[in-house]
Write a structure and sequence with these properties.
- By secondary structure, this protein is an all-alpha fold.
- The chain is built from nine helices and two strands, in the order H-H-E-E-H-H-H-H-H-H-H.
- The protein has helices at 2-13, 22-37, 61-100, 108-113, 123-162, 169-177, 185-192, 194-212, 214-238; strands at 44-46, 52-54.
- It has a two-stranded antiparallel sheet.
- It is elongated and about 75 Å long.
- The two termini are 46 Å apart.
- InterPro entries: GPCR-Ligand_Int.
- This is (salmon louse) hypothetical protein.
């Protein structure tokens, strides 16, 4: 999601700059994902009865504080949200500038022709301005959906930050023997729905693109229609 916001921000703020290959964003996201989640392979281990339990590294409150504060709360929580909001900020300014000065997008040719260019919005410039406004609207909706779908996760991480001792095995076993939960019920429910909110976030982003961007709908329709056309051609050849 951050990669999509960064790509949209670059397309609007720097429309004349050559865009990197899509593989660049894919590799970047893979590297970030692996580096942030590699530690989880050392936090749990399988048991003989097919269940899992925490390893010794999860018994150190210092490590728990590091993983909950610096990684989950700051890196994947506050920093991620700040990147998306900051990516929307300069985009809005760029779109406003183009809206009030549509002749700027024509480049240096108009500037060389006259020292005082007249900014008269042509039909092409109006289409370009409308396209930029749609892109800004998409970014605002994406950021809003991101905040709504991930605000609960930040709340759970803030709780785990202040009560890091509740995440160790001894506290869990003590609460289990007392017939109680090791954290409030609402946090357990929200944590269980974490993956669902991620799916909702991605699905809503896809719906936003389909609803706002006509070019995206056409490209998606062509992509879906290609297998059908190939099947029809093979069926016709067999006949």
């Amino acid at each position: 999601m951050v990669a999509v916001s960064a790509e949209r921000c670059q397309a609007i703020c720097h429309p004349l700059r050559e865009r990197p290959h899509p593989l660049y964003y894919i590799v970047f996201v893979i590297i970030i994902s692996v580096s942030l989640n590699a530690r989880k392979y050392f936090e749990f281990q399988s048991t003989s009865d097919g269940d899992y339990e925490t390893t010794s590294i999860m018994e150190y409150p210092t490590y728990i504080m590091f993983s909950t504060i610096w990684q989950e709360l700051i890196l994947t929580g506050i920093t991620e949200g700040q990147i998306r909001i900051d990516g929307d900020g300069p985009t809005d300014e760029r779109s406003t500038f183009i809206t009030h000065n549509p002749g700027v997008i024509q480049g240096n040719n108009n500037f060389n022709r006259s020292s005082t260019p007249k900014y008269t919005a042509t039909s092409g410039q109006k289409k370009l301005r409308k396209r930029h406004e749609k892109s800004v609207f998409i970014l605002i909706l994406i950021v809003f959906v991101f905040i709504v779908c991930h605000s609960f996760r930040l709340g759970v991480q803030v709780y785990q930050t202040f009560y890091s001792s509740h995440n160790i095995k001894d506290h869990f076993m003590y609460c289990n023997n007392q017939g109680k939960l090791h954290m409030p019920m609402i946090f357990l429910v929200l944590t269980s729905f974490n993956n669902l909110f991620l799916i909702i976030n991605s699905s809503v982003n896809f719906i936003i693109y389909c609803a706002v961007r006509k070019s995206f709908r056409k490209s998606f329709y062509k992509l879906v229609n290609i297998p059908t056309q190939c099947f029809d051609k093979r069926h016709f050849n067999n006949e």
